[in-house]
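The following block was generated as part of the benchmark described in Methods. Ligand: FE2/S2 (inorganic) cluster.
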Amino acid sequence: MPDRDSVPAADLPEGTVRRVGDWAVGNRGPGPDGDDRYFAVSRVCRHQLADLSEGTVDADGCLVCPWHQSRYDVRTGEMVEGPRGFLGYHGPTPLYTQLVRLVGSLARLRVRRATRRGDDVVLD
Ligand code: FES
């Protein structure tokens, strides 16, 4: 039986992310066909386990980690850009960034369908 997790749509304006249980649920704005606005992905970053529900949505509709700004495609869960730093360091780390991105592209976030039903965004 599927979980029926939900969040009020009013709490998810465009560009925001919220925690719903183990999931980071967000609103990336209207897609080309207008119906892929909402997303839900597992909320633990593949880099150093930051809570992705505290992240942001960038102009491309990617979820950005709050710690080192790894970027995720929320449609597939794939890390499309690696971290800028590690632990407390925030800055360029070109080889390390590419290595983590490779791992993150293979070990994707889990993805769940999120759709608006009435006043809520419901996870199927
Ligand atoms: S913990 Fe997410 S990018 Fe480092």
